[in-house]
């Protein structure tokens, strides 16, 4: 990633948000969360996804890849084509769900998305974090 000490460090931010979001999703009784707690969980998910995309963008640029598309979906597609990601469809679904929740601001919609967050998205985000940590 960028070595300039004045640059933001999205990978460190990604790691922090990932840990906080995982802890909440794995330890909380989601059926007992208040609307405010659900919104907090959503915000953690949103930021984790945003930092994951930013981290991928920075990694590809550091590796000399010239990105043709800078939208989150475009970055993910290019990351998949460059073999940074093993699959693309669940990542696109993750962005779609993130966008849906972001634009509706309805905490109750998160309850419908939580199974995908728990079963699909967090494992993908965790794998990306682990893969990036393993790189030199």
From TrEMBL:
Keywords: Transferase
Highest taxon listed in the record's lineage: Bacteria
One Pfam family this sequence matches: NTase_sub_bind
Record Gene3D superfamilies: Nucleotidyltransferases domain 2
Database matches in InterPro entries: HepT
A molecular function (GO) term: transferase activity
Protein's name according to its UniProt entry: Nucleotidyltransferase substrate binding protein, HI0074 family
């Amino acid at each position: 990633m960028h070595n300039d000490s004045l640059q933001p460090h999205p990978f460190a931010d990604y790691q922090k948000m990932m840990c906080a979001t995982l802890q909440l999703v794995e330890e909380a009784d989601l059926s007992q969360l208040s609307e405010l707690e659900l919104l907090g969980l959503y915000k953690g998910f949103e930021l984790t996804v945003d930092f994951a995309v930013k981290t991928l963008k920075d990694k590809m640029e550091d590796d000399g890849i010239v990105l043709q598309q800078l939208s989150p979906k475009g970055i993910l597609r290019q990351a998949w084509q460059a073999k940074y990601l093993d699959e693309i469809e669940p990542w696109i679904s993750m962005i779609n769900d993130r966008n849906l929740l972001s634009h509706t601001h309805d905490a109750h919609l998160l309850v419908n998305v939580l199974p995908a967050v728990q079963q699909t998205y967090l494992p993908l985000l965790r794998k990306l974090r682990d893969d990036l940590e393993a790189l030199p």
